[in-house]
Amino acid sequence: MDDFLAPIQDAFEGQIDFSGQRTTELLSTALLTISGLSAFLVGYILQDIHLTFWTGLAGSLFTGLIVIPPWRFYNRNPEKWLVPSAGGKGS
C-alpha cells in the first residue's frame, strides 16, 4: 500500500530545491508584473474597470497555476544532504 501512496504523497508534499525556489520567485514576480501592466493597459484603453479586474484576476490565476504546484522542473538540482553519523554530540 505504501508503494502505491508514495508517489501521490511526493506530488502533494511540494518539495522543490533552492534553484526551483529562485525560479518560482522570479516567475511569480515577472508574471504578476506583466498581468498587472496588461490589466492596466486593457482597462485604460477600453475604459472599463470590470475588464481591468477580470484581466488582473486571470493573470493572477495563471501565475498561481504556474508557480504553486511542485512541477518537476522545480526540483532538478536537489541538495545532497549528509547522512547523520552514529556518534554525534548527543550520544
TrEMBL record:
Assigned protein family: Belongs to the SPCS1 family.
Membrane disposition: Multi-pass membrane protein
Compartments (UniProt record): Endoplasmic reticulum membrane
PANTHER family: MICROSOMAL SIGNAL PEPTIDASE 12 KDA SUBUNIT, SIGNAL PEPTIDASE COMPLEX SUBUNIT 1
Record's GO cellular component terms: signal peptidase complex
Function: Component of the signal peptidase complex (SPC) which catalyzes the cleavage of N-terminal signal sequences from nascent proteins as they are translocated into the lumen of the endoplasmic reticulum. Dispensable for SPC enzymatic activity.
Pfam families from the UniProt entry: SPC12
Native organism: Emericella nidulans (strain FGSC A4 / ATCC 38163 / CBS 112.46 / NRRL 194 / M139) (Aspergillus nidulans)
Keyword Transmembrane helix: yes
Positions of transmembrane segments: 26-46, 52-71
Keywords annotated in UniProt: Endoplasmic reticulum, Membrane, Transmembrane, Transmembrane helix
Lineage of the species this protein comes from: Eukaryota, Fungi, Dikarya, Ascomycota, Pezizomycotina
GO biological process: protein targeting to ER; signal peptide processing
Protein name: Signal peptidase complex subunit 1
